[in-house]
Write a structure and sequence with these properties.
single chain, mainly alpha, structural constituent of ribosome
Length: about 130
């Protein structure tokens, strides 16, 4: 009788043990292989005289040559509300509306005001601007 009871206990314990092992989740991020490199990869060919690279530092010598009278923002060809302006999109659009809003076409002004309304709600609901 004891041997039969012991057999049942052993099978019960092994069943519980296997159920616990199967219930545990197994996941793998893939094999951890070393990257094989047969040769050193060729260097990228970069154009050193792209427009962006060639214009880097263009306005640096204006102070030296111009006796520090002209600021680089005065030499930039851009709309008035953008020259030397630093800020987010909402600030830029409200600045544009203040400066040229009365001279804008109806559809453009309407789209500008829609975008301002959207950004106003967005900035006040989400993000670090609150």
């Amino acid at each position: 009788m004891m041997s039969v009871l012991g057999g049942f206990l052993r099978t019960g314990v092994s069943f519980c043990h296997s159920a616990l092992l199967e219930s545990a989740r197994h996941f793998s991020t893939g094999l951890c292989r070393r990257i094989r490199m047969h040769a050193i990869p060729p260097l990228k060919v970069t154009d050193r005289w792209t427009e962006k690279r060639s214009m880097y530092g263009v306005y640096d010598n204006i102070g030296i040559l111009g006796d520090f009278k002209a600021h680089p923002r005065d030499l930039i060809l851009a709309p008035v509300w953008l020259k030397g302006f630093r800020g987010n999109e909402f600030q830029r659009l409200t600045r544009k509306k203040r400066m040229v809003g009365d001279r804008m076409m109806t559809a453009d002004r309407h789209n500008l005001e829609k975008r301002i309304r959207f950004l106003y709600r967005r900035y006040n609901r989400y993000g670090k601007h609150r």
